[in-house]
Amino acid sequence: MPSRVYDTLILGAGPAGLSTALGLARVKRTALVLSHQSFRNNGIKAMHTVLGFDGAHPAEFRRIGREQIDKYGNGIEFAEGEAIKVRKANCENEYQGFEVEEKGGKMWRGRKLVLAMGARDIFPDIEGYAENWPDNIYQCLFCDGFERSHLPIGLMGFSSASHLNHAMMVCHLSGDKPNVTIFTNGPFSEDPALKEAMSAARSAGCVSDERIIVKLTRAPNGEKGVDVHFRDGGTKRMGFLVDKPPIESVGQQMLVDGLGVEVVPTMFGSCLKRNEPFGETSVKGCFVAGDAGTPLTQVTIAVAHGVAVAGGVSAQLCTEEGERALVAVKQVDVGENEVLSKHATQCLK
Question: Which residue, 174, 188, 203, 211, has most beta carbons within 10 Å?
Answer without folding.
Answer: 174
